[in-house]
Specification:
Blueprint (H helix, E strand, L loop, with lengths): L1 H15 L7 H6 L8 E2 L5 E5 L4 H6 L6 H12 L8 E4 L13 H18 L3 E5 L1 H10 L9 H4 L4 E2 L4 E5 L9 H17 L1
Parallel strand pairs: 2-3, 2-4, 4-6
Antiparallel strand pairs: 1-3, 5-6
Length: 194
């Protein structure tokens, strides 16, 4: 237990001092915070998004803007409490203008995600969007299953130590009712696994 708390604290300190990241200068310039992750340190379900948006970078909290509101309502509709899960991103600093994370940025931040997974030991990793789907499936031996998110969403894949369920990114459903109902259906899968 102490090991987990210490490990997570160390991750936080290292990310706070990550001046090698090309996104660090942006963080300082804009008085942003890195977004490390939030929720239960013994969560059965871990959500992995892409990167913080503006609201997240201003507060240091994952999914607290519009996509976050949608995530909250999806959790609610599946009967999952936000405080019982752990929510994080691959990239811990905001890419300028919310552009897609670059491969170099993913390479810098992903080892922190790997350590969070190792410490929290979730039963299920729900990836939000294609970047986290691609990273997690490639990293954890599921690369042969990779396909487009429109094919893989809502399916359950077994990695060595946890299941992976790729989900659409909630931001994609903000103006798309069809996607929103798909996401709602897919969220129900999570509760059967936790
Ligand atoms: N989008 C993400 O991928 N992550 C967040 O934390 C917020 C929006």
């Amino acid at each position: 237990m102490a090991e987990r708390e210490e490990g997570l604290k160390k991750i936080k300190e290292e990310v706070l001092n990550l001046s090698v990241s090309p996104l660090y200068a942006e963080r300082v310039k804009n008085k942003y915070f890195p977004v490390i992750g939030e929720g239960s340190h013994s969560a059965a379900i871990m959500f992995v998004g892409e990167a913080p948006g503006e609201n997240e970078a201003k507060t240091g909290r994952p999914f607290c803007g519009r996509a976050g509101k949608l995530l909250d309502s999806l959790l609610d509709s599946a009967g999952i409490k936000r405080e019982d899960v752990y929510i994080t991103n691959i990239v811990k600093d905001r890419p300028p203008k919310n552009r897609d994370p670059l491969p170099d940025e993913i390479a810098i931040y992903a080892p922190f995600l790997d350590r969070q997974i190792e410490l929290i030991k979730p039963k299920v990793i729900a990836t939000l969007g294609r970047f986290s789907m691609q990273y997690v499936m490639n990293r954890y031996g599921l690369e042969f299953e990779l396909d487009s998110i429109s094919k893989l969403h809502g399916q359950i894949f077994s990695a060595d130590k946890f299941k992976v369920v790729p989900l659409y990114h909630p931001a994609a459903a903000i103006y798309n009712q069809q996607l929103l109902s798909t996401l709602k259906e897919d969220f129900k899968v999570l509760i059967t696994l936790s």
